[in-house]
Design brief:
The chain is mainly alpha-helical and 123 residues long. Helices cover 23% and strands 5% of the residues. The chain has one domain.
Length: 123
């Protein structure tokens, strides 16, 4: 799924649409803690390979509902100067809907770690 900003740039939108499908496990295991993480984004996950269409129709909504269960969600009330850090591969995260006109400054840093040290999806 692409947002309105991505759709405005036709060349970028067409390039994104031409990308091949990605395949990865739905459950990731952290190499140090052994904890399991659900890797199931409702904007990109369309099926679980090996399940029938009927099974996917039943299972996917359960996964998405579990990931969005309010009792399992940490909500951060942003204040000036806040610094947020998380393990991107093992934490389901999102932001609330916001207006494209709403000012937002976000700086992102990514550490490239080996799969032996970090929870990453493997194709």
């Amino acid at each position: 799924m692409m947002n309105a900003t991505e759709l405005r740039d036709k060349a970028k939108a067409n390039a994104m649409l031409s990308l091949p499908d990605a395949r990865h496990p739905v459950v990731l295991t952290h190499p140090h803690s052994g904890r399991k993480a659900l890797y199931a984004d409702q904007t990109t996950l369309v099926e679980i390979e090996g399940l029938s269409p009927e099974q996917n129709t039943r299972v996917l909504p359960l996964l998405f509902a579990t990931g969005g269960d309010p009792s399992l969600v940490y909500r951060h009330k942003v204040q000036n100067g806040d610094l947020m850090m998380w393990d991107n591969g093992c934490l389901l995260h999102r932001r609330d809907v916001m207006s494209i006109e709403q000012p937002r400054l976000m700086k992102r840093t990514t550490f490239r770690l080996s799969p032996a040290e970090h929870c990453v999806p493997h194709a």
